[in-house]
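The passage that follows is intended for readers who have already worked through the single-chain material. We present the inputs for a multi-component assembly, then the predicted structure in tokenized form, and finally a short commentary. You are encouraged to pause after the input and sketch how you expect the pieces to fit together before reading on.
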Amino acid sequence: MLSVAFSSALKDFVRPGRIITWFLIAVVIGFIGKLWVGFQPTQSVATYGQVMEILGFRILALASAVFGMQVLSAELEQKTVVYLLTRSISRPVLLAGRSLASFVAVSGASLLCWFAIGMGVLGPRAFQTPGFWMDAIVLLVGVAAYGVLFIFVSLILNKAMIYCLIFAFGWEAFVPNMPGDLFYISIYPYLKALTNHAPVESTKKGIMDVLSGQVTDLTVPVTASWIVLAGIIVGFAALGLWVFSNKEYLPREEAE
Amino acid sequence: MINLDHASRWYGEVIGLNDVTCTIGSGVTALLGQNGAGKSTLMRLITGQIRPTTGQITVFDEDPFGNPNVFAKLGFCPDVDSFPEHLSGKEFVLRMGRMMGVAETAAKTRTAEVLELVGMADRADKPVKGYSKGMRQRIKLAQAIFHNPDLLLLDEPLNGLDPVGRREFMDVLQSLAHQGKAIIVSSHILFEVEQMTRSILLLHRGRLLASGDVSEIRNLIDQHPHRIRIRSTNARALAAEFAKLPYVLSISVEDLTGEVEVRTRQADQFYSVVGDLAMHGHSIYEIDSPDNNLESVYEYLVGN
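Having made your guess, compare it with the prediction:
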């Protein structure tokens, strides 16, 4: 039944219109990367890292929020959740199948952008660039980490998309630049630690450093990052399965 | 099949269902009540979408909440008019069927069967977003009966159907009922319900006011005497005979139509006397009880 839930959801998530949309986003991002490296041609590898941090990982968070909401929130909004919840498929299996489908969709969108950034900034030599392939692995870890978190939020809160976007584009974008250790309560710094991109050399910090969370020199040890990310993935996945198995879900208007 | 034992359901401070105890078995049962009476809450409890706040509910002897074993034997046609609009009716039914654990090939065959049954076989390849309300109702019914469930719950199923569609829909229900299925139909349109079944569950403001056969319930409503109309060639003579009966409360005669209307609290005894009178020469050619119907029972129990 897991495969049925998975394939059924994947057909919904990966429709031609959506594929075209994410493909166009990737093309635009690749083009931006190509323009970007033109401003600092001597630091192409560092620029690649900067573009990945500013755009690549934001696209990952955006795609996670968009497809994460498709797992349950969209069904509640469209009032079609009643059909799903009266099938002879257990709730944990249903959630697992639909979540996996959303992870596949997010992975597709994120890896498309990663590839476009690599080609735009580095060209074909991206494949030989140190850290390029590692970024793909980190993106996949990010898919799972953002995915389980956002899906969990959608299981417990109405209008979860707003909270997820505020987290991804507000909290996560600026907390790494703030003094103190608030950045521990986020996902991006751990992913950033795993990628270990070289910073762009510059005489003073600018907006790009703010957006890529490089104003302060706070770092997280790589081992700790793996452990925290694994904890987030396992913890929120388990919590999500438990909540979905026990909580009542009614079409949105009726629930309010 | 379905047992409710002092089941109540609260939504915050609002009560949806109040201390309902009843058993529902096979055949067609109508769930009647005005908007807000608790019909949808009861449907949601039976279909395991929500849990009772207090009390217990079992379906096929199991707790229905999120229970795949129960859903394997239960088909639900919800009142919400929502679908994944990008799918065709056929794709939707097939997808729902697959999620009932039916293999791909068998699911395709069964999809064709149920679409034929609900009269959508020739139109099911078009996207749902272009469907009329009646077509949507048929698709909802198709997904509900896909797995040949023993228990079928239909929430306001006749909404949006044209007269021919209603007739066909009722025929499908009757044929399912004759197969021994339990069918629960919620409606607030008494006329429609009356054509489907005489067995009702009447809800009002979350409480179960009455359950059982309409006639039996009518007999229990003692404070409202039965009205019985008898047409005869000699209405006055017949009225004189009725006047001798101690349990007849009032008699009115309409000479023009030859009609006598009697009000009594003991309808069964009265009917036996009418039979005797007919055998002793009174030419009685029509007996009718205008308040022995669902609408009267509903009005007596709920008021206006």
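Commentary: The CA atoms of residues 12 and 53 of chain B lie 10 Å apart. Chain B has a mean pLDDT of 85. How closely did your sketch match?
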